[in-house]
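May I ask for a sample protein chain and its fold as C-alpha cells?
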Amino acid sequence: MIILDVKLNHVYGFDDFHINFAYPKKIVGSLIEDEFLEGRERFRYKKAVILMGTNATGKTSLGKALLHIFRSVKEANEAVLRELATGEQPAAFQVDFVNEGFTLHRLSGVVDGDNVTISYHNAHIAEMDSYEKAASKLVDKTDEVSGSFKKLKAMIGDLEYRFAYPEIENLLRLTEVKKTALLKTLRAVIGTLDPTLMDVSIAKDLKDSFVIRRRGQEIIIQEGKLLNNEVLSSGTAEGIDVAVFLASMFSDKNCFYYCDEHFSYIQSDIEKRIFGLMLERLGRNEQLIFTTHNTDMLELNLPKHSYAFLKKEIDEGEYKVTATFASEFLKRNTDSVKCAMENDVFGSLPDDSLLDELEV
C-alpha cells in the first residue's frame, strides 16, 4: 500500500494540515530503488520518509490518525473513526492511496460526535499517469458505497499495514510475522544490543512464544506480551519491538509501515544500521515512514525528498502544524540536510528562549 496525500482538520491537534508523498522528477543514482508504482514508472512516490520535528509537533499523532482511518476500512467498522474527533469541532480527513492494482483511491470523511460521513472516489491509473494526472480523473463513487463500510472494503480491498508505537502499544504484534524471520531478527538485534542475550529460541511448551535466555534467567515473549522485562535495559526492551517490526518486513505483502520513535534508548549508529536494513527489505509498492529525533539520520545518502520536518507555529492566534520536505529548499546534491536543519532552514528547531530565564 502506498500513501500519496493526506489532509487532516481538527484531528489530534492538526488544523488544515496537508502532506504530500508524490514527487515529480526521477532521481538518478538514488539508493532507494523503485520509487514508483510497479508498472507505472511515472507514478512516483516517496518510498521512505524520515519524519522529524520537535516534541508535540504531531509525529505520533499523524501515525495514529492514519492507523484509525485504515483500520476502519480493514475492519469495516466506522466506529474506529470516532477516535479522530477529540475536540468540539467536527474532525475531517482525506487520504489518497493505492492498494492493489492500478487504482487510485480517495477516502474522505467527517466525524461529528457519533455521526460519521464518508466520501469515496477512485480512478484508473493509466500507463503514463503521474499521481497528479490520476488524481484529476477521480470519479465520485460515494453513492455506490452508500455509507456501508463493508461495501467500501470490497471496493478498496484488504489493506496491509504495520504501525509501531512504543508509547501506546501494550503488546508486540506477532500476527502474520514469520516465526523463522522473527527468530533471526531477534537474535541479531538483541544480540547486538546486549551480547549476553545470544540464546534466543522458540518456546516448545508455550503457544506463539519465544524465550531469551541469559545465565539461568528466561525472558519470555508470549502471544505478543513481553514478560519479566524488568531484567532488560530500556534499550534492549525497545530493541525487541524493533526486531518484531523488522521481521514483519519479510512478509512481501505490499505493506505500509509506520515506525514511530523506536530508537530513543538505542545508540545512533545502530539506529542508522537498522534503518538501512529496513530499506533493503522495503519491497515494490511498499512505503515506510520513520520518525526520529536523531539528527545523525540526516547524514544518510538519501534523496532530499526523503526528509520531512513538522513544525508548529502560530497562525492568526492559533497553533498550526505544517510539513516541509528538504527538497523544497535544497536543490543541489552537495547541500547538507543536517547543516540546513542546524541553521533552522526548515523552521523546525524548538524555541528555547524560555530557558533563558533559568540562566544565572
Notes: The first strand starts at residue 2 and ends at 9.
